[in-house]
Amino acid sequence: MSKKTSTKLVSIRVRLEPEIIVRIDLHAGESGRQQFIRDAILGRLDETVPPAVLDLIGTVEDLRERVKLLERAGASTMSLGPMSDDLKTKVCRDDFDRQILSFIIEHRGATTTDLERALGGRRRTILDRIYKLNERAEKILGGPVLEHVKGEHKGKKGAWWPTKTIYS
Questions:
Q1: CA distances in angstroms from 46 to 39, 42, 43, 56, 147, listed in the order given
Q2: Cys-Cys link to 79, which of 9, 32, 97, 102 (CB 3.0-4.6 A)?
Q3: How many CB atoms lie within 10 A of CB 49?
Q4: 43 burial type by CB count under 10 A (0-12 exposed, 13-18 middle, 19+ buried)
Q5: What's the pTM?
Q6: 3 state SS of 148
Q7: Is it the case that residue 152 has pLDDT exceeding 70?
């Protein structure tokens, strides 16, 4: 007679090749096929996460990163007030240029790594943008808007600092 269990069980039907049945019988021993298959299924469920769940986890992580980036970008556009209109419209090509300037002003100087983390751009892109900003500022305003100090200055090493031209 079989033992009665307190949990409700559902029967499933699985079609397997005869070679697999022979292998199951060899490994199952006295516990039998049913227990062996149940243990194999539970072991597999415990060791892996289904691909659909992994996709969802990846999507949620991507969305979190986007939200952080948007929050940082929104926060850095707040400091555009003290800049001249020529600087905002003629020197800055687009919103990314304005975000770079805004971040540097707001944080009273910033390293390229700080800008990279905060704005989500690549290091080379940020440096190219800063160089182009300074070139346009020299033509339009008569001097660069940012200067790079290699040594330690005001507690930051190798940082970009706003010049007096930025406020004229």
A1: 10, 6, 5, 18, 56
A2: 102
A3: 10
A4: exposed
A5: 0.51
A6: strand
A7: yes
- Quick check: 161 and 104 in contact, CB under 8 A? yes
149: CB partners within 8 A, 6+ apart? 158, 159, 161
pLDDT higher than 50, residue 16 = yes
- Domain ranges (residues) in the chain: 18-47, 66-167
Query: Are 112 and 160 in contact, with CB atoms under 8 Å apart?
Result: yes
CA atoms within 13 A on the CB side of 76: 26
Specify the CATH class of 66-167 in words: mainly alpha
Within the chain, residue ranges assigned H as helices are 18-28, 32-47, 51-76, 85-86, 95-106, 112-119, 123-141
**φ and ψ of 94, to 5 deg:** -155, -170
CA 113 to chain CA centroid, Å, is: 15
Average pLDDT estimate for 33-59: 81
